[in-house]
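Because showing beats explaining, we think one record worth quoting, sequence and backbone structure tokens together, and here it is:
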Amino acid sequence: MFFGELKTESSLNSILTSSIFVIDANNQKVKISKGTIITDKHIEVFLKNNIDSIVCAKLERDDIEENKAVHEISKKIIFKSKSNLMIDKPKQGRCNLISSVNGVIKFNPKQLLSINSVTDKIAVASLKNLSFVKKNQVVISIKAIPFAINKIILNSVIEKSSNCFQILPFKNKVIHLIQTINESLPKKVLEKTILVTRNRLKNCNIDSFYEKKCEHSITELSRKIKESINENADIILVFGASAITDINDVIPKSLVKNGGTIQRLGMPVEPGNLMLLGKLKKNNKNIPLVGMPGCARSPKENGVDWILWRLFCDLGISKKEINDMGNGGLL
């Protein structure tokens, strides 16, 4: 691609590299924007404004214009089926990808690194992997840095881009909330927790929500957990009257008493450290149980949200993935 100063008369079909203000035939000040393809009419206006030379770009053989280039990458970079991503109209060398659902963005960070390592002429930016996204939100942006990309370079980027991004939609799970109580826990805290949890679920398209209360004891909580299992809960959330402080505390013990297994106690995200992730089983159905940290009584984002978003999309969560949450885990 040529980039430099040309005589105005020789600039036909070149690309304007920076915006220029001119006086038009009606004696009005108008802006000719960066990226404009220069026509005979533009040349005439420039000359009337005593603009004898222009800095512009000109495509050469095997160059692909910036908007076409980013659009070609966009078509390849999304999953072939059920990506839940819409491709926006390219403009000024940028093409945005927009989520068509509420859900979680999913991609391989190593693949994104590989795409961005091909050339510094193409930049692909996205939200953080496995983060919450809203319907109609811009979640990925693909930008051509120069005004044109060589075909060979473009093909190399496209080759690396195959099936990189998708949005996993939230599923309408049946959620059971169990709150344990004692004499020192105010009623208004229980009521607020129900409201906050209901809204947290609503943001994830979940409206099947059932709430229970019981004494803060292994016997009573175990009984309530068993009830929820028999009532076909998909996920059980437990708020304790006091925070979980040990693997032998009330909530983990009640999980184990129902034949469940503890997958994780504690996570490297603050707020949200005192989270319990466990698993129960009914026939061939796995039922996650989440011991909720006290901070989740607030609507503010915390570590347990990162766990719930994945569960609501049927994504598994490994210990390594939870350990990785420490990077950026101080909220």
